[in-house]
Amino acid sequence: LPGLHILAIVFALEVSVGKTNTVMALNNSDVLLPCTFTTCIGFQDLVFTWYFNSTELIYHGKIKSKASEPVLVGRNPRVEFVGSTTGKDNNISIVLKNVEFSDAGKYTCHVKNPKEKNAQHNATIFLTVVQKMVETDNTVTLIIVGVVGGLIGLLILFMLIKRVVLFIIKKTQDGK
Questions:
Q1: In 34-138, which residue ranges form alpha helices assigned H by DSSP?
Q2: Over the stretch 131-147, which tens digit does the pLDDT of each residue have?
Q3: Widest Cα–Cα separation across the chain
Q4: DSSP structural state of residue 87
Q5: What is the three-class DSSP state of 7?
Q6: What are the contacts of 91-95 at 24+ separation with CB within 8 A?
Q7: Strand order in the sheet with 56-63
Q8: What is the distance between the alpha carbons of residues 31 and 133, in angstroms, rounded to a whole number?
Q9: 10-50 pLDDT, tens per residue?
């Protein structure tokens, strides 16, 4: 049975939403919900679905093989497929159009690969919808860093001048 365990690791299906699993969108804008998958042995008749808050199906697609693009099975009219699976990254990303505050929540990209004994995996993105994007103001931080840096520079300069003055005094005393 140890051999079977190793086989399970080799035939791993991975689903990813990128480096961060939180996305912020402006009210009434379009937002990209990224998702890619990888599989060690390829795929055949792979099924992928996007869910909103675990229960509401918003996109359902099927991919026959690596040589073909996904076929739409069903979708919410405000969702558009923007990925591609004939490229190298097996991108099954979607765009949610005209985002509203009620769209905030959990989006799950779910993949099922029959070629890997129906291995299933998913990844989740949390969407936050805001009225306006707030730019962080770093002015205060920059002022503090500048003042502290300036004080450290003055301290080093003072210590250097002190050393030079002491050196000159010592040399003039040795000369007498």
A1: none
A2: 876 666 678 888 888 88
A3: 99
A4: S
A5: helix
A6: 91/34, 91/35, 91/36, 92/35, 92/36, 92/37, 92/48, 92/61, 93/32, 93/33, 93/34, 93/35, 93/36, 94/32, 94/33, 94/35, 94/50, 94/58, 94/59, 95/30, 95/31, 95/32, 95/33
A7: 22-26, 119-130, 105-113, 46-52, 56-63, 71-75
A8: 13
A9: 457 788 887 888 898 999 999 999 999 888 888 889 999 99
0.70 exceeded by pTM: no
DSSP string, 162-175: HHHHHHHHHHHHHH
Say which residue the tokens 């040399």 belong to.
Answer: 171
Q: What angle do CA 14, 19, 20 make, to 5 degrees?
A: 110
List the beta strands (DSSP E) in the chain.
Answer: 13-16, 22-26, 31-33, 36-39, 46-52, 56-63, 71-75, 79-81, 94-96, 105-113, 119-130
Chain segment 70-95, per-residue pLDDT in tens:
889 999 999 999 988 887 788 999 99
Residue 68 CA to chain centroid, in angstroms? 27
Domain ranges of the chain: 14-130, 138-175
CATH of 14-130, one of 3.30.1490.480, 3.40.30.10, 3.40.50.10860, 2.60.40.10: 2.60.40.10
